[in-house]
Write a structure and sequence with these properties.
- The chain is an alpha/beta fold.
- Helix content is about 45%, strand content about 15%.
- The chain has helices at about 10-25, 65-75, 85-90, 95-115, 150-170, 195-200, 220-235, 250-265, 290-295, 300-315, 315-325, 330-335, and strands at about 1-5, 30-35, 55, 75-80, 120-125, 175-180, 185, 205-210, 215-220, 220, 240-245, 250, 270-275.
- A 7-stranded parallel sheet has the order 3-2-1-4-5-6-11, with helices on both faces. Strands 7-10 form a two-stranded parallel sheet.
- The longest helix is centred in the first third of the chain and has 21 residues, at about 95-115.
- The N and C termini lie far apart (about 50 Å).
- The model has no long low-confidence stretch (mean pLDDT about 95).
- The site of thymidine-5'-diphospho-beta-D-xylose has 16 residues, from helix 6 and strand 8.
């Protein structure tokens, strides 16, 4: 089986490549990645020499280059992780989100139609459902929850999802979609909550919590997400959406306090800063469908996963130091010094 994994130099895509090369040692994996600020070739260093792996630096929006790659590799499966993924950046500059997340998805699916594949899988997000109120803990997102987005990021992901389902209905393209909750784990880019807090705490820098810190996210260890995608691609029903989440809801402030505790840093580092515009209050996935139909369940408990993640950042300083010493400095100043 030959699989094109787009966005494989980013956080979840790279973890997925490691997972797949280990689990299916007869599969050929081609990573197609533009290497934006969020993509890092050093992340893939351990698999670069693997004969079952090929890296191609390219933009998923470049139709000609994408078609050429399909002609060369004749993939059986395409799994699209490539995206602009940070909500705060989408609020600053929406257009690149529309370009990559919607137009890029269209180019990939057009290539799938032209050359033929057995499965196109779209990696989507729980953010397409909007948010839930804090005072209704009985409510969860199911696959039937209406799309109701808040940010340019989530709107672009929802736009892509609708297009994927349209290609299924109109052209019969064999698609599946997964909508996962917040991931955490190794190689998470330091602009996101958990790695940002770990890295700032390690340097005794302030820990910027948006608003009152009461917003709730449903956290899943990245490897559990990878396992879910593998199962959907192999056993999932074409044309279907699968929600992925492990019932692990936590308030942002509690996550930050937990990180302080693990690193033995004072909570006085916590600073409440201006809230994110349009900030979603609560995400909570109902994973009944993927549990029942595919037998998926999360393996890593949050208490263990967060320990492992903090340890990974302690053991891999050079990975994140290179990132935060580059263009990231300008981003950080712009976002947090106002
Ligand atoms: P990331 O930002 O860490 O990585 C994105 C990768 O895509 C990078 O390697 C980047 O270089 C690449 N990329 C961006 N634009 C590209 C383009 N035009 N052509 C080719 N490559 C391009 O993102 P992530 O957190 O790993 O998320 C991966 C996917 O999972 C995204 O589609 C995201 O919407 C979805 N998702 C993420 C989470 C989460 O918690 N991080 C949760 C649910 C769903
Ligand atoms: O400095 C911060 N302070 C803070 O309080 C940052 C970066 C975040 N936050 C808050 C905002 C959110 O309520 O923490 C929460 C998590 O923020 P992010 O890590 O930016 O994630 P989120 O906005 O929830 O989106 C993530 O999960 C869904 C991913 O980035 C998306 O790609 C995915 O689709």
């Amino acid at each position: 089986m030959t699989i094109i994994v787009t966005g494989g130099a980013g956080f979840i895509g790279s973890n997925f490549i490691f997972y797949m090369l280990k689990k299916h040692n007869n599969y050929r994996i081609i990573c197609l990645d533009k290497l934006t600020y969020a993509g890092n070739l050093s992340t893939l260093a351990s698999v670069m020499d693997n004969s079952n792996f090929r890296f191609v630096k390219e933009d998923i929006c470049n139709r000609e280059a994408v078609y050429k790659l399909f002609e060369e590799e004749k993939p059986d499966v395409v799994i699209n992780f490539a995206a602009e993924s940070h909500v705060d950046r989408s609020i600053e500059n929406p257009s690149i989100f529309l370009q990559t997340n919607i137009m890029g998805t269209a180019v990939l699916m057009d290539a799938c139609r032209k050359y033929g594949i057995t499965r196109y899988h779209q990696v989507s997000t729980d953010e397409v459902y909007g948010d839930l109120p804090l005072d209704r803990p009985d409510l969860f997102f199911t696959e039937n929850t209406p799309i109701h987005t808040s940010s340019p990021y989530s709107s672009s992901k929802a736009g892509a999802d609708l297009l994927v389902l349209a290609y299924y209905r109109t052209y019969g393209l064999p698609v599946t979609i997964s909508r996962c909750s917040n991931n955490y784990g190794p190689y998470h880019f330091p602009e996101k909550l958990i790695p940002l807090m770990i890295i700032n705490a390690l340097s005794d820098k302030s820990l910027p919590v948006y608003g009152k810190g009461v917003n709730v996210r449903d956290w899943l260890y990245v490897e559990d997400h990878c396992k879910a995608i593998d199962m959907i691609v192999h056993k999932g029903k074409v044309g279907e959406v699968y929600n992925v989440g492990g019932h692990n809801e936590m308030r942002n402030i509690d996550i930050v306090k937990m990180i302080c505790k693990i690193l033995n840093k004072p909570e006085s580092l916590i600073t409440y800063v201006t809230d994110r515009k349009g900030h979603d209050m609560r995400y909570a996935i109902d994973p009944t469908k993927i549990n029942d139909e595919l037998g998926w369940f999360p393996e890593t408990k949050f208490v263990d996963g967060i320990q492992k993640t903090v340890q990974w950042y302690l053991d891999n300083r050079s990975w994140w130091e290179t990132i935060i010493n580059g263009e990231y400095q300008n981003y950080y100043k712009k976002m947090y010094n106002r």
